Amino acid sequence: MAGMDAPGIARTARLLADDTRAAMCLALLDGRAWTAGELARHTGVAASTATEHLHRLIDGGLLTQEHQGRHRYVRLAGPEVAELVESLSAHSGPPEPVRSLRAARVSAVMAAGRTCYDHLAGRLGVAITDAMTHQRLIDQRNGFRLTGDGVTWFEARLGEDLGGVRTARPVARSCVDWTERRAHLAGLAGARLCAVALDRAWVKRVSGTRAVRLTPAGESALRDLFGDGICHTVAGARSD
Fold first, then answer.
1. pLDDT tens for residues 78-107?
2. Helix, strand, or coil here: 83?
3. HSE of 7 in the Cβ direction (CA atoms, 13 Å)?
4. Domain 6-77 coded CATH 1.10.10.10
5. Over the stretch 151-180, which tens digit does the pLDDT of each residue have?
6. Domain spans of the chain, in order of start
7. Model confidence, pTM
8. Helix, strand, coil content of the chain in percent (nearest 5)
9. CA–CA dist 1, 12 (Å, integer)
């Protein structure tokens, strides 16, 4: 991604100022690697046009590519790019009017719960972040950080040892939620929490989107971790 100076910011802004390139980055927020053909179909452009856009995004540091046999895959260059795209979405003003029943349903499930690259977002992600803040596992008064109790909680309740991890990635980071316009938990802690939720089938993915729905097992787990109140907040994220 471009350096943190005025020309670098302008270059990154120009990359995301195109509707097709922005749509590609939004699609890649699901954390998967996509082929150029898949992104071309998703954005409704010709394969040659998609390839041109992808070259610009790769050269600009927003995407990376990898080869497997004859196939080339692209993905977001890292969690910091995902957080940039999500944050820009939160500051982009009202969404376009929904023009079909299917689009309205997709919008509703995305707002209820989704993944933002490798962490939970939507009402579900924000509700969990709020509950963790209320229990003083996260401190939002002085920046945004996982407390000592939060580190202990991750190990005792989720089996995730964050205290001994050495990584350049922040343990906890605030990511502005584009539907809720409030913070949800990102960083290493957010990624580990999302991985646990998926591995233990607390949430299940909604096919064809990056939305997730809370399962009965997940509802029980959240009630055990945070109390009954959270289940009322995330009611729209439940599985049918």
1. 888 988 888 888 777 656 666 667 767 878
2. helix
3. 0
4. yes
5. 999 999 999 998 777 777 889 999 888 888
6. 6-77, 101-237
7. 0.78
8. 50, 15, 30
9. 7
